[in-house]
Amino acid sequence: MRSLKKCKRVVVKIGSSLFAKDKGALDTGLVNKIAEQIFSLISQGREVVVVSSGAIALGMSILKLSSRPKKLEDLQAAAAIGQHELMHVYKLAFKKYKLNCAQLLLTWDDFLGYRYNNAKHTLNTLLKLNCVPIINENDTVATEEIKLGDNDRLSALVSILVDADLLVILSDVEGLLGKDKKVIRQVDKITGEIKALACPTSKKTCVGGMVTKIEAARIAVEGKVPCVIAKGDQPKIISRLTGDPFCQGTIFLPR
Fold it and tell me: Residue 207 CB: number of other CB atoms within 10 A?
């Protein structure tokens, strides 16, 4: 398997399925472990951008909602309540390592025209300042016309935006499973057969599942960014992906 040791700039996407526990409450222990791994990468001279879900799940927990709201205004309200709580947890986690983090909330419009360049310049500046950008979709104002729909796709677009060397999508699964239920370690081309292996999520607090992760991988590799889907609660998973010869999760290679 190819080694990913030379990856300088890494985008890490963290899904709600990892964070949500105890009816949507945030798993702060996992956040702290991920922060530790990111600090380790930065100490090695790498740059890390985080795309994090969890705002709506946290809002649902605070509002004591048992299922994901269906109305747009209810989703927006849950996101508004949960987003600041999400950033507070990240702030405390990175503070232990004397790292600053910054919040960026994006919609589809931010990937078009002059706003694309503005977002790119902001992210590049934050990385030069040794700051960890935390990106989420701006669910509080997003409508169907400007909504990205899921953070898997957002992470792929961000990886292209910042010219990343690697996109890591952390989830609650070990990778893409083949028909034999074993993890497929490497995908050279995303074919109809590969897509047929995916199934949507059944989680109450998140959207997407493997279907959107494969779509995100397609966007990334077409932008010449390799993409790895891996289980996020494994010990030092990010460090292992970027340090040792590749042996975790599923890697999608760029064309």
Answer: 18
Annotation: CATH topology of 9-252: Carbamate kinase (3.40.1160)
Q: Output Rg (C-alpha) for the chain, integer angstroms.
A: 17
Q: Binning pLDDT at 50, 70 and 90, where does residue 51 land?
A: very high
What value does the mean pLDDT take over residues 108-129?
93
**CA neighbours within 13 Å on the CB side: how many for 19?**
28
Q: In the chain, what are the domain boundaries?
A: 9-252
Q: Give the separation between CA 154 and CA 46, rounded to whole angstroms.
A: 21
Give tens-digit pLDDT for 188-218: 999 999 998 886 554 544 445 789 999 999 9
pLDDT at 200: 56
